[in-house]
Amino acid sequence: MTRCPTCQSRATKLLNISTGVTTCQVCGQRWHTVHVTQEDIAQGRPSEADHCPVARALTRALGEPISVGDRWYRLRATWSDGLLPRPARTFVKRFDASQPVAPFTFTVSADHG
Fold first, then answer.
1. Is 56 within 8 Å of 40 (Cβ atoms)?
2. Which pLDDT tens digit goes with each residue over 25-50?
3. What sign does the dihedral 73-20-59-5 (CA atoms) show?
4. How far apart are CA 45 and CA 4, in angstroms?
5. What is this structure's pTM?
6. Which residues of the chain are under the pLDDT cut of 70?
7. How many C-beta atoms surround the C-beta of residue 39 within 10 A?
8. Distance CA 76, CA 1 (A)
């Protein structure tokens, strides 16, 4: 069972299938789970904000075009920004430096902007 990224509760989570948003029933935090796949890595391009593996995975999870920097992500349609969690920042840094990377999963808040 996944823990809430905010309160770390293992309480029941509610997943809205149509939006991909999970909500913690304890603290109310809403988040997206983002899966960076081997295909994202293979198709990704280092140092390209719109085409890195994390941007590809976020675009798929959030359902809209995303740009990624070394610490942030931006929803291009609304210019809303979010801070990338540490595992995603580390991945971007390693990928851009042509160091070995592997598929991984992370979460971002569903409440943007």
1. yes
2. 787 777 788 999 999 999 999 999 99
3. positive
4. 31
5. 0.84
6. 1-2, 10-19, 112-113
7. 12
8. 32
What is the per-residue pLDDT for 24?
Answer: 77
Of 42, 59, 57, whose CA–CA distance to 101 is shortest? 42
Among residues 40, 41, 11, the alpha carbon closest in space to that of 26 is found at 11
Q: Is the dihedral of CA 37, 40, 42, 45 positive or negative?
A: negative
Amino acid, res. 49: A
pLDDT score recorded for residue 27: 79
Name the DSSP class of 43: H
Which amino acid belongs to residue 104?
A: F
Task: Say if residues 59 and 85 touch (Cβ distance below 8 Å).
Answer: no
CB of 112 closer than 8 Å to CB of 80: yes
